[in-house]
Amino acid sequence: MKNDLDLEYTTIDDAIRLTKELLARLSQLGEYKHPLDVRRGRKEVVNVVEQNNQSKTVKAGSKTYFFDINKTKDGKLYLVITESRFKGEGEERDRSSIFVFQENAQKFATAVSEMVDLLE
Length: 120
Known about the structure:
The chain is of the alpha+beta class.
């Protein structure tokens, strides 16, 4: 049976140390392009953006489009197009993505180009 003297107590110094450690780790996560990927365990995807700055962002009103080149663990490149929509104050942004692999990229680009021409 434990008595009161055997219990561990948290001191204010412990709390300050833990807070500083938490802030440092949150700051580190904030530097990632996709910080939630760490939580989701998507370690098999290597983000080429950090290595080559192969990323573009297009802001269009309440929507933002991200174009990123990533690489699978097998070394295959692919394009990720992500749309992020602002739904309102205090609400999470709505996000959806499509993936275009290298072997389909030219056909995809041609189709997009043709459709853009129809808009003009």
